[in-house]
Amino acid sequence: MADVLTAQAVRDELGGLAEWSGDPTGISRTVEFGSFPAAVAVVDRVAEVAEELDHHPDIDIRWRTLTFRCVTHSSGGVTHRDVALARRIDEIVRSVR
Ligand SMILES: C[C@H](O)[C@H](O)[C@H]1CNC2=NC(N)=NC(=O)C2=N1
C-alpha cells in the first residue's frame, strides 16, 4: 500500500499542480468544457488513463463541468499515485483546450 503524503508534502506537490487544491484527504480540480458531450469525452479519456495506471479518480459531472478528486482509497489519503494521476488528467485537459 502506498504511503499517505504529509500535509507539507501535499503542499509541495500542489506547487507543481497549479489548478489543483486540497490536503492529505484528497486533491481536486474543477474544469468547465464547451458542452456536455465534450466533458463526457474527457471522462472517457481519463478512464483509459485510470485503467492504464490502475488508479481511478472520483469524478463529478455537472452538465459541462467536471470535478476530479484524487485520493488513494486503499491508503486512506493522498499518495504519489494521486499526484501522478493528477498530472495525467492535466495533460488530457491541456490537449483538448
Ligand atoms: C485492485 C486495484 O488495484 C484497486 O482496487 C485499486 C483500483 N483503483 C484505485 N483507485 C483509487 N483512487 N484508490 C484505490 O485504492 C484504488 N484501488
TrEMBL record:
Listed EC numbers: 4.2.1.96
Q: Where are its TM segments located?
A: none
Which top-rank group of organisms is this from?
Answer: Bacteria
- Give one Pfam family, short name only: Pterin_4a
Keyword presence, Lyase? yes
Q: What is this protein called?
A: Putative pterin-4-alpha-carbinolamine dehydratase
Q: Give one GO molecular function term.
A: 4-alpha-hydroxytetrahydrobiopterin dehydratase activity
The answer to whether keyword Lyase applies is yes
Under the heading InterPro entries, the entry gives: PCD_sf, Pterin_deHydtase
**Catalyzed reactions per annotation:** (4aS,6R)-4a-hydroxy-L-erythro-5,6,7,8-tetrahydrobiopterin = (6R)-L-erythro-6,7-dihydrobiopterin + H2O
Enzyme class, top EC level, equals lyase
Write out the entry's keywords from A to Z. Answer: Lyase
- Please state which protein family the record places this protein in: Belongs to the pterin-4-alpha-carbinolamine dehydratase family.
